[in-house]
Every structure is written in C-alpha cells, then in structure tokens.
Amino acid sequence: MNPYGIALTLVVFYAFSEVHQRKRAFYTNPVLLSITTIAVLLWAGGYSYESYMESAAILKFLLGPAVVSLAVPVYKGRETIKAYAREITAGIVIGGMVAILSAFYTAELFGGTEEVLLSMAPKSVTTAIAIGISEKIGGIPALTAVLVILTGILGNAVGVELLNAAGVRDRIAKGLAMGVTSHGLGTARIILDDELAGAVSGLAMALNGVFTSLLLPYLIEVLK
Amino acid sequence: MKPYRGLAIIFGFYALGEFTSSALDLPIPGSVLGMLYLLAALLGGAVKLDWVENDAELFVRNMSIMFVPPGVGIITYIGLLKSQAVPVFGALIISFLITLLVTAKIVELLRGGKE
C-alpha cells in the first residue's frame, strides 16, 4: 500500500480545517473543499481514482467503527430522548419518510435514472450511514456521499433562516427538523443559536440514521 | 482507562454487526447493527460508558475526513452528473425544503405551543 492517497487527504483536509477555523461559513466546509480539491488534483495530474483509493481506502474503512461509536452520544442523550419521546418519534418517523419519498419522487419526476433515485433516497442521513445504505440498495455510494454533504451544507447555510421565515418558533420542532433534514452540518449550525435545539438535532440525526437504515431497504422494494 | 479495551469493544461490535448482516443477508449495514448492539450493551450495563467513551469520541470527532475518499469517487461519475444534473440538483433542493418545513410544522403542531 502506498502512502500518497492518505497523505494527500490528510494534508488537504488539515489545510481546509484551518481555513474553516478562521472563517466559519458554509462555503468553507472542509469536506466539500477537500473532495473538490483532490478531484481536481487527480484530474490535472492524470491519476485515476483507483490509484488514489489504493491508499485512501483505509480512511473509508474507518467509517464502520465510527458509526458503531455513534452509540455513545445516543446513550448519553437518553434522558433527552425520554423527556421528548413523543415529539422525537413523530419527527423522525414523519421527517424520515418525507425525506426519502420527496427525494425519490422529485428525482423521478425530473426524469432521473433508477440508480440516481436509489442514490438520492438516503441523502438526509448522516454520511457514514447513507453510504452503507446506498451500497446495500444498489445506489452509487460516491453520488450519495456528495448529495448528503450538499444537503448538509444547504441546512447549514439556510436552514435556520428558512425555519424563522416560515414562522416556526418551537425549539424542539426546529431541532428535529434540522437534524432529520441535514444531519451533522445542520446540527452544527443550530447548536450555535440554541443548545437545547442543538442537542435535539444531534439525537434526531443519529436516530434518523437508524430509522432510515431499517426502513429504506424494505421501502425501496415497494418503490422500485 | 485500560489501553485497547475501548477499541476492542468498538471493533468487536462492528465485526458482530457485519457478521449478522451478511449471515442473515439483512439489507441493514453491519455498522448500524453494531451501533445498536453497543447501545443495547450500554443500556443493559454489559459495557460501561467509560470503557468506550474516549475511543468512541475519537472516532466520532474525526469522522468528517472519512467522507473525503468516497466523495472523491464522484469523479468517476462526471458523465452521469452532467446528464442527470436536473433530477439530481432539482430533487436535492426541493426535497430539502419539503423535509425541513414539513417536519418542523408537524412537530410544532404536535406540541401545541408548549414550552
């Protein structure tokens, strides 16, 4: 295994994280900037994705144990889950379904191919879980990864403003909507405004990941 | 904190999740099953929080960079993105708006203005 792909990823990601530390904005999102930069570098240098992945694959492999580790924040939030059990259940079941169905049917309406519809369906779930689901249901994991990140960036950039403009005042409702719709990046945004809404958002993201991964593979059989 | 205990638990549950997923041919990713097993073990008291807390938080905190390699894979689908730009980006934006607003409005309705 060569060290070039992993070294490139770490150096580029570290550099953009530094930029993000200095200027916290949705357009300095280090994940999206790193993906774009590495893609351009590979293209400009005439390298294939396979040659890059030969060494960068280990980073992708670590998503597995990282998803397992999400049990810890969920466990730590168990009191909040208990206190708002009814709202959280309703928000995740309804929001999770709406996220899948609206993505699937809108893409179909616009003439999307089957692999595009399948790659779109898990886009509201946190990336690590979405990639796993996309692989399982026959989508394109790379396309799903990019769609998830773009969904997160949308939430981070305009989510709170849209909720305010729509007249949503309830903090639990805001937190749930942000977490269910735009996972980690949405949570990162709303926690800056409101700690309670942020905690609910983080939980909603984790629970929606579990809910979607349990539901979507079966739902897809019906939708296809 | 004992060295390797947290990592052994996390990778052990991951392996168990992957094993269940493939042995029973489940459509659920093994990592998600592993998370559910670890959560159940924490809730049941079989695993103590401080056995896994540090290692789990290390993984969760460093998760962002792990999306970069799969994301870069998009370069092998440039042709598809060009031909499917309208369904992909149109559905992305519309679905985002619908999901955000429907979820917020329904939860707000359910709570009926209580603090």
From TrEMBL, chain A:
This is CidB/LrgB family autolysis modulator. Keywords: Membrane, Transmembrane, Transmembrane helix. It is found in: Membrane. Signal peptide: none annotated. It is a multi-pass membrane protein. One of its GO terms (cellular component) is membrane. It comes from Thermococcus gorgonarius. The chain crosses the membrane at residues 31-49, 55-75, 87-107, 142-163, 198-220. Coiled coil: none annotated. It comes from the Archaea.
Automatic annotation (TrEMBL), chain B:
It is found in: Cell membrane. It is a multi-pass membrane protein. InterPro entries: LrgA/CidA (IPR005538). Pfam families: LrgA. GO terms for molecular function: hydrolase activity. The chain crosses the membrane at residues 27-47, 59-80, 86-107. Keywords: Cell membrane, Hydrolase, Membrane, Transmembrane, Transmembrane helix. Signal peptide: none annotated. It comes from the Archaea. GO terms for cellular component: plasma membrane. This is Effector of murein hydrolase LrgA.
